[in-house]
UniProtKB/TrEMBL annotation:
Residues 31-48 have a biased composition (Low complexity). InterPro entries: Bact_solute-bd_prot1 (IPR050490). PANTHER family: ARABINOSE-BINDING PROTEIN-RELATED (PTHR43649), POLYGALACTURONAN_RHAMNOGALACTURONAN-BINDING PROTEIN YTCQ (PTHR43649:SF33). This is ABC transporter substrate-binding protein. PROSITE patterns: PROKAR_LIPOPROTEIN (PS51257). SUPFAM superfamilies: Periplasmic binding protein-like II. Signal peptide: none annotated. Keywords: Signal. Residues 27-48 are annotated as: Disordered.
Amino acid sequence: MQGKWGKAASVLMAGVVAASLTACGKEEKPASSPNASPGPSSEPSESAAPKTVSLDWLTYQYGPVDNDAPIKKFVEDKFNVKLNIWYMDVTQREQLLGTKLASGEIPDFMTVYSGADLQKFYTQGVTVGYTEEELNQYMPNYKKLVDSYDPKIWDYVKYDGKYIGIPSINSDGVYSLATAWRQDWLEKVGITKVPETLEEYKEALVKFRNDDPDGNNKKDTYGMSNSGMTNVYGAYGVYPEFWTIRDGQIVWSGILPETKKALETLREWKQEDLISPEWVIGENTGGYWAISHDFVNGKIGVSSHGSYYHWSPADPETNFLGGDNTKMLAEVTKGEGKIAYGKPPVGPDGKFGNITPGLVGGTYMAFGKDAADDETRHRIMQIWDTVYGDFDTFVKVKYGDKGVHHDNGPDGHTIVMKEGFKTNEEMAKIGAHITFSPFAQPEFSKKLQDPKRVGANDKYFKFEGAGYENAVKSPLPSDSKYSKNLIKLQQDTFTAIINGEKPLEEFDKFVEEWKSSGGDQLTKEANEWYQSLK
């Protein structure tokens, strides 16, 4: 967000949100002087007896946190804070947060799910920033962690000389999305090896649709749904909702000729009835977002839904039941359903891959406007830095107490939650999971992993030369003005083309409309950002 491009004015939020900034929320805290120096210590001092600070906390955990949750009480006692932990369904976050903001309620600390929103909230006064000095004094451990991966990550959350959010590290960014096949289906239809090319991919889809892979004597199975489309785009060298680099310039992948070729293939497959009729709705029918219900319930035979670790293979030796989709498939099929792991299919020009995100995370933490008060902001920083700088604290807030909420697995490394604390909702009740540790801590995670499982991840989900990541790592000045509408335009057009509601030639009209509706401006800003890094 640095440089000339980062100083452009952003479009204001909806009037109802802007008006909320002057509405009556919780009691106003005194604002700090912009020249105020950071307060003492990076760790709460018992001798200093700091006053109790009230914090509104929003990390979109998977269920409500009990008022007397043990981990909530641990954090309150350790840092002398009083926590009001908000619960919002993350799938409705825009609507629910908008309602809160409209009533003048703004959390002191909150998860933000895109760089565009991070910049938007800051420019409109919903959130506040912090200085380099504060970063060094109050979050030295987290700074050291981020710097060990890429110090430039901090540049992506800087705007007009201030840091406007806390960045995340995507330590899993070297892994592609899973390409998970129903192995029992492949065997049933006579396919003896996991498909490797786009042609073989299609051959399997045809057999899944026509050869009754589930053996129920009904034509009720399909090849794939929406997540499989990512692999088809990848076979043509693109992921259509990312910026990419062509001939030294930043361009939007969704308007490239390769995307049109992928759409032509998907359109043909849809006409041949290989793609689920409900693909627009998606593979998840509710509950935990990462579950492909279409896959585990036997509607489709290949999926890349969720993240790679949601498909981790089971390991009977350590009693590891596998990732969420692996576990659910075993439960639904009573152990008869098997998964075969493949690579994204290779396309006609030798290209292959799907989303491989890279190290820069797409999620941020931000300080609400009431955290303009130094003591509030610094106390939050101290909590964050201790959680991500002290292994024992991280384990405590992530998993609770050993012997009460969890134990170590047979390998001596992994954490196994005890009965009553196994589901995401059960963990949320006690204040665990992502309530106080919404980001990954890669170095701590290594200590909690069975080395054999790391090897499995490398084997099944890491592919040399595969994968597409977004070339633009920071929000653009006009993102909030144009991006949402442009994405909708693209999705609506692509859906209509794939479903046969519009001809393939509609793509060319879409490209021109995309450019004239803000795409050219975003492309200009993307290249200004790119040049500013050189």
